[in-house]
Amino acid sequence: MEALKAQIEALGNELKAAGALPALDEEVSGVTLFNMERLGGETGPLGDFPSKRALLRFAGLNIRERKSGQYRGHNRISKKGRSLLRKIRAQMTFPLWRGIHLYDDYYHVKVERGMLRQKAKVAVMRKFLGMVYAMAKSGARFDETRFRRCESQYRLAQAA
Question: How many CA atoms lie within 13 A of 71 on its CB side?
Fold first, then answer.
């Protein structure tokens, strides 16, 4: 197992150097290169997806609404996509809402406002997958100051 993990990480370093993987700083983001490789193995090149919505649909994280006539059911994730990809997403994002990592505030605000914990976890998974997709499409490196601010605040800070 350790030898295979070392091979996967070596391949991940090659892909990262070639620019095929989004450039996430492990110390800042809490996401390891091994997990990014697992994500890339399930999705293929993220730039091949036409939109974030298509990627979420591929992963089975798109929201489906149950309704018929006057009946209004609960909104849930469809789970029609790749189950292993959803498992990898859950394993990757678990450390991100624990402690002081990226989505800790986001997750806890959702829970404090009355969202169920499992739904808040799915919200974190969807948000993180969207961020990774955007980084893969733009080729930009992860910037924590940009991540922590809305776009208008970030542009004001850049102008100053």
Answer: 6
Percentage of the chain beyond pLDDT 90 is 7
Interval 52-61: pLDDT, tens:
999 989 988 8
The answer, yes or no, to whether residue 42 has pLDDT greater than 70, is: yes
Higher pLDDT, 54 or 20: 54
For the chain, the domains span: 2-159
Return the closest-CA partner of residue 54 out of 43, 42, 65. Answer: 43
Beta bridge partners of 72: 67
Q: In degrees to the nearest 10, what's the CA dihedral of 17, 14, 18, 25? A: -40
Beta-carbon neighbour count of residue 138 at 10 Å?
A: 10
- State the pTM of this model: 0.77
Rg over CA atoms, the chain: 17
Contact 28, 145 (CB under 8 A): no
